[in-house]
Amino acid sequence: xxxxxxxxxxxxxxxxxxxxxxxxxxxxxxxxxxxxxxxxxxxxxxxxxxxxxxxxxxxxxxxxxxxxxxxxxxxxxxxxxxxxxxxxxxxxxxxxxxxxxxxxxxxxxxxxxxxxxxxxxxxxxxxxxxxxxxxxxxxxxxxxxxxxxxxxxxxxxxxxxxxxxxxxxxxxxxxxxxxxxxxxxxxxxxxxxxxxxxxxxxxxxxxxxxxxxxxxxxxxxxxxxxxxxxxxxxxxxxxxxxxxxxxxxxxx
Length: 252
Ligand SMILES: [Zn+2]
Hints:
alpha+beta, SH3 type barrels, 2 domains, six-stranded antiparallel sheet, four-stranded antiparallel sheet, 4 helices, 12 strands, 16% helix, 20% strand, elongated, binds zinc ion
């Protein structure tokens, strides 16, 4: 399938978020990115930040399953927001609206400042996790090749990139299968128990351990976030867990 690239247009960005650095800054929020090896905090436009956090969560599932190496951010070499609005030009850098991020810039293994094509320090699986959440890699461009650059373009067709399904997880129920509602299920991996069916600052207590007994209170809930959730009861608390981390069989 051919890849199509439809970024936010400069006109859209200007009308949504303004035309001055001061105005754009009022929209930015701080996001914590965890590549599995270390964590950085960075200011991003929320439309991009929430997706990038999900993309890293997806990538960490691959790290856990041993199919990709933990990604280590090189601190001080990750950049997102930079007010680079070109004068006398109709196009703006996606960095001016913090919907782009550069990993590992000015590094021998990253994209070189001279524009020379170089090596990158992330894997294909890393790019696939990004693509699954609408984040496009400049390493897939030819002109200019920009290996360190990732930007948010939610309307792109990434050739069917999908969020990762962890190994050993239960097959998600079909949605019409209500037979396991009300039944006991088990967590197949350490899992966050959440007060709503989304990732974010909504975790209830500690991470629940693999093997924890839960009672299924719903069918698989499909959300636009790319994850499927299930409403469950753990002890006397009701909340949500990622459906792919559940099985009717107790894990060994
Ligand atoms: Zn960039």
